[in-house]
Amino acid sequence: MIDISLMIEGQNGLNWPIWKKLVGEVEQLGFAGLFRSDHFTNPEPPDKDALEMAVSLTYLADHTQHIHFGPLVAPVSFRDPIMLVRQAAAIDDLSAGRMILGVGAGWQEREHSMFGYDLGDVPTRMGRLTEALDVITLLLRNDEPVSYEGQFFQLREAQLLPRSQHQAGPRILIGGNGPKRTLPLVARYADIWNAVFVSPEAFKDLSAQLDTLLLAAGRQPADVKRTLMTALRGSTEQQIAQIQAYAQAGVEELMWQWPDVTDLAGIHTFASEVLPHV
């Protein structure tokens, strides 16, 4: 059994009329969740509508009852993790515990340059992401005030109030395939690992590496849910076969990337022709 969620690229023309239609229909179509990217724009022009992530998810939280949701993923290169986790905790409570906080290092140079954010080199990005995850987990998982002194972020007897009504607040998702940098962060901090555009065979291998890292960190493999974001190609039968292959490789939830946010008909077709068979 595998869950199927819809993942859209929010910088590809997403605005309020389109988002309201998606939110109003996706839960009824049988998807497990609705995820969206968090970007100002694309790496290349033309620039399109890009509805702000946190505001859009607040609307979703208040206008659905069952689906889970979140950013896939929010870059801490322009999202201050302290404000991000404060927003996520509030949205999680609003939705009765359905928020998933997807966090990433940031990668797209054009949007950072356009809006004056410092992306930095890869070591800088990964160092900033590690500190951001420290800060996020400290604020979510401690009921007492916490302090932290990092290169990028600081806390001094800080506490988020009100405390979450749902255990430790939103689950933390880390996306990526890197065995040297990303998977160790997953093993240390994440509740959910999201692989990106890999084959079933590659997913199975990376998942086994994650098992080893989790055991070394004093955790169990079952502590981290295994998910994948990918596109599906070909006929209905071919798409079903692809999903089944991923399920056999250990994918528990597939985030189906649908690039055209205006093509509601295509989403309806997928829901009616593919979802009943997986």
Provide structural commentary.
This protein is of the alpha/beta class and 278 residues long. It is 40% helix and 19% strand. A 9-stranded parallel sheet has the order 3-2-1-11-10-9-8-5-4. A two-stranded antiparallel ribbon has the order 6-7. The longest helix has 20 residues, at 122-141. The protein is globular. The N and C termini lie close together (7 Å).
Summarize the structure.
The chain has 278 residues and is of the alpha/beta class.
* Shape descriptor: globular
In total, the number of strands is: 11
Taking all Cα atoms into account, the compactness measure Rg is: 18 Å
How far do the termini sit from each other? 7 Å
Summarize the amount of helix as a percent range: 25-40%
Major sheet details: 9 strands, parallel
Q: What is the arithmetic mean of pLDDT?
A: 97
Order of helices and strands: EHEHEEHEHHEEEHEHEHEH
Low-confidence stretches: none
What structural class should be given to the helix and strand makeup? alpha/beta
Spatial ordering of strands, largest sheet: 3-2-1-11-10-9-8-5-4
Percentage beta strand: 15-25%
Count of runs of 4 or more consecutive helical residues? 9
